[in-house]
Amino acid sequence: MEINERKAVEVEIVHKEYSAIEPVPEYARNISFTDMLATWIGANANNGSWYVGGVVAGSAFTGALIVTLVANPVAYFIMALIGYIGYKVGTSTMALTRPSFGIRGSYLPSILNITQFIGWTAVNTFIAAISASFLIKDLLGWPAFGEAGGQKTMLVGIGIMSILHLLSIATGRKSIKLVERIGVVFILILGVWETVVVLNHVSLTAIMNWRPPVDKSMPIGAAMDAMAAFSLGWVPAIAEFTRYGRNKNTATVAPMIGANVGLFWFAFVGIIGAIGTAITTGVYDPNNSDPSTIVSKLGLGAVALLIIIITSTTANAVNLMAAGISLTNITKKVKSITALWIVTIATAVITLIPLYLNSFLNTFIGFLDYIGMVFGPIFAIIVVDFYFIHKQKYDTKYFDEKGGKYWYSNGYNLYAIAVWVASVIIYLIIKKIGILNQSIGVTYPVIVIAGVIYYLICKNRKLD
Q1: pLDDT tens digits, residue range 298-355?
Q2: Where are the domains of the chain?
Q3: Considering the entire predicted model, what is its pTM?
Q4: CB contact set of 302 (below 8 Å; sequence gap of 6+)
Q5: CA proximity to 344, closest of 18, 59, 117
Q6: Which helix (H) or strand (E) holds 40?
Q7: What separation in angstroms does the CA of 129 have from each of 35, 122, 150, 314, 434?
Q8: Domain 25-458: CATH superfamily, name plus number
C-alpha cells in the first residue's frame, strides 16, 4: 500500500503543471526532443503564419521570401537563448523577468504577455472561425463570413473553436502534447496539398514575376517588422515548455528547428496562395489573405477548411499555455489549470471584437506593431541580464523573496524599466525614418539599442 501511494505521488509530481515561479525538478522534465519539435512546428504552421505570408506578399515574391528567410531565424535565435535560460533555471519566461525587472517589476511584462497571447489566440480563432463559417454554409446554408448575416455564423464558429480550446488545455501540457502530435500530421497534409494546388493553378515563374498594385505594395522594412513581430510573439512562451525539456538540445535546437520549419513552410504557402489568387482573380487584397478565403477561391473544399480549424487549435494551445502561466506569475492565488481556463474563456470574448471592426487587416498590423514595440526591448533586457550581467546564474530561491537579491527598489529594478520605456519611445521615433521603413525595419535595431543601453547602465552597478 505504501509503495502504491508513493508511486501515485511520484506520478502526480511528474505530471503536475508547475506555476510560473516554481522550478521544474529534473525528474519532472518529460518533454522529449520529438515532442518539442512537434510543438513548435504545430505552433508556427498555422493560420496566422499563412495570413502573415499573404500580408507580406505585398512586397512581391522576392521581397516576401527575403523577409521570411531573414526575420524569422533571428527571432528564433533569440527564442533559443531564452529557451536555454528556462531550461537551466526551470521557471517560466515571465518568472525569468524577475531577476532583471524585479519581483514586482516582472508584473509589467507579465500583463503585456497575457494580453498579447490572448490577442494571438483571438486572431487565430477568428481566422479559424472564418473556415467554420464556410463549412456551416456548406452544411446548413447559413451565410459565410463577408456575406450579409454572416455574423451569426461567425458566432457559432467562435463557439466551436472555444470548445476545442478548452479540450486542448484541459490537463495542461499533457493534453497539449497530444494535440500537437495529432495536429502536426494534419498540418503536413494541408501544407503539401495547398502548395501542390497553387502551383497547379499558377506557375512558379508567374508568381515570381508578379508585382502588387502600387497602392497595395508593402515596403520591405514594414514587411520585416511585421514578420519579426510575428515570430517574436512566440518568444514569451518558450520557457513554459523548455523548462520541461529533458536536455539542452531539446530546449534550444528542437524549438528553433520546429519554429523555423513551421513558419517557413506556412508563410511560403501564404505568399504563393495570396499571389496565386491575385493572378487567378486579377485582384490582390491583403484583407483576403486568410487561408479560408484562399482555400475557398482555389476550390480545395470542406476537408481543407476542417484542417485549418485543427491547425488553429494546435497553435492556440501554446498561446493559452503561455497566457495562463503568465497569470500565475502575477498571483499565486490562481492555480495553473484554473489560469488556463480563465484565459481561454477571456479569449472567446475578445475574439468577438473583430466582428465589429471595419478592417481585420489593420487590426492585425497594429497588433504586430504593438508586439515589436513592447516585447523586443524586454527580450533584449532578459538576454543581456542573464548572459552578461548575472553571468548565467539566477538563484530561484530569491525569485519570490521580499527584500532579497531580486527585490531591488521596493520590488522594481528601475534601470530595466527605464531602459524599456526609453526603448519604446525610440521605437516610436525611428518608426518614422524612411530609410529603415524601406530596408531593415525598426524592430531589430531597437532590440540591439535596448540591449546595449541596459548593458552600459548595469555593467558597473551592483544589482543584487
Answers
A1: 666 666 677 777 777 776 777 787 788 888 888 877 887 788 888 888 888 888 877 7
A2: 25-458
A3: 0.85
A4: 134, 135, 138
A5: 117
A6: helix 33-44
A7: 27, 10, 11, 15, 37
A8: Hydantoin permease (1.10.4160.10)
